[in-house]
Structures
1.
Amino acid sequence: MQPTRVSFSDGSTTGEGEVLLIDREASIVVVDATPFHPVDHTWPDQPGDSGTIRAGDVTLAVGEAVMAAVSDDGALAVGSDIPVKRGGEGWTWLVGHRIDGEIPAEVGVGAAAVLEADADRRAALSRGHSACHLASLALDAALADLWRKEIGTDPLGNPDFEGRANQSSRIVEDGSVDEYRLGKSLRKAGFDSEGFAATLAEREARINEQLATWVASDAESRIDTEGETIIDRRAWRCALPEGEVGFPCGGTHVHALSELGAVSVTLDLSDPQLLVMTTRVTPPRD
């Protein structure tokens, strides 16, 4: 068995393949090739795609695509139950399609499958993910003057607050929620937490102004990949006016920033030890 070939990186939401594996107890179907984007089991920021798989006269409802792996001795592990790191020896990495309900007996290994991910949901999650990355870069820029020591930089050369402080990121349809820990270690690294709290509204305004400028540029956004399987590395890249930026990312994205319409963030520091940044996308009307 070979790793699942995936096509979501180029924006595909439809595809065809052959059923390779069925786990009826777990309601999982694995196909040799899929357009479905799976939720990552180690950093589950973007939900997996939903949609349908058609095999013959049977249509299966896919609740969510997930990461899966099968050992050389045939043991299937799904999601957080996978006991090895991605690419670990002795395991083949797959995309599992979690089916809502039971899998009928007439659907078996070797069946030809037609797969279709929910295109509207995919588009909304892609907008949310691209906006999330832009917001993180705008956040770094807006907080750049609050650092008293040199630290690593982000793709635009600003102090990497995102990389230092982010503890969770959750992509939703047309938005995201990111949490940043503002603890003792960040202050020791040179970050002026008190100065940040005193100028929170100003920082938020800076971020939103920067986001408006970037969206108006209609910059190209794309995913570069080193191969066609689920274990090949992928990276998001965007040709911002300041220069092309990019970093490793396994999610899905828009093709151009004009698809975002408008992006805005709100910063919540109700807990002085925890910054919550909520990003919202208002897509353009057709």
2.
Amino acid sequence: MTSRRPLLARLLRLFALLLLSWLVLSWLVVLTLRFVPPLTSAVMMERQVGALLHGETGFRLQHRWVPWNQVSPYVPLAMVAGEDQKFPFHHGFDFDSIQDAMDAADEGRRLRGASTISQQTAKNLFLWNGRSFVRKGLEAYFTVLIELTWPKQRILEMYMNIAELGDGIYGVGAASDTFFHVPPSRLTPAQAARLAAVLPSPRRFHADRPTAYVQGRANWIQQQMAQLGGPGYLESNRLPRDTRRR
């Protein structure tokens, strides 16, 4: 019995050390990405590996990082209008939407997404697709980290640069080139709304060939953009700026 206690204590100390090391390392990675654009993301790597495993020989991943000040202001506004209108105000989690989703599940209605832009950024950048409790727990952890470490503008800049906007097409840079053949700075409100409209299912829907559903959703997003007050919505709510590179 006595010999087991020192072994157990050593194992506990080792576990605590490993946990602390992981916490510090993960925060350092998040801190670095506050200043440096990522070369790739977890969902991009997952998609590329999946294409190789499934023999998709024609698959080509497209991604090009575009700084905030080189993107039309209608793009971040469209994403906020379509995905997370409380983005300027919350601290990573929309608890009202979470409660609504839980109520819908209890009543047997179709589940509604309750993830914020911050949560989706954390998932896209660091994690894998899926619905396990482990992944959701890690998503919450990284959401807290990025909300504590990055200004809101950086979170939105990251999101619009790594979100999947078509099959293998990641970020506004690649999407504007592929779908509209214009630089991101010249995207119109209608084009920005169509990019945001495909986000629920970017491999099924196409921003350049919208179905009736996608066009209807894009029209709704444009209405929301106007009702929010246009690009000034993000400015008027004092969206913290990332000014270090401007």
3.
Amino acid sequence: MLQLNPSQNRQIYFLIACSCLFTAGLLSSNFLASKVICVCGLEMPSATVGYALTYLMTDVIGELYGRKVANRIVQFGFICLIVACVLTRLALLLPSPYDSSAFSQVFSTSTRIFIASIVAYIISQSTDVYIFHKIRNYSPRFKFIRNNVSTIISQFLDTIIFSFIAFYGVVPNIWSMVLGVFIAKVVLALCDTPFFYLLTRNRIDCQEI
């Protein structure tokens, strides 16, 4: 059995915890998207808050464990997203002896929205990791710059890609919706900065896994 010292155990446990939070934010955002909430006059899907957690976690993981590990988390998240969507579709198709209309109403999503979420996820998350580490290599001192710039740019891409694939030709004023959602995401990105500093305050001296 492989023996690890206490420092290595902490590294592994912290990575597992961050990965679990990333996955929780990713999967919950797909189930919460149907409810629209209003915060400070801005309308947005309730999934916006949960999805913002994924960017915070990839930034934390990238800061402590390196770009390769952050990219792996994004790739594993993509697989989890596909599996969760397939299992949800299967649950909807399987017959039930009871009235399952409420279940179908909550968990049914169109193929267009499903494709939109998949494409927006893989492009925006990969971009977030790329920009974060480009800025980190150029200017390693100011963590808030790479945290906020990478998240805001990737969130903009996510909003544009998802909105146009999912709602182009359906929503009358799609740019208004994009602007409202993006402003909300920028505010959330700025709000997660203290948490980024808190979670990365103790530099973990480890090699990329």
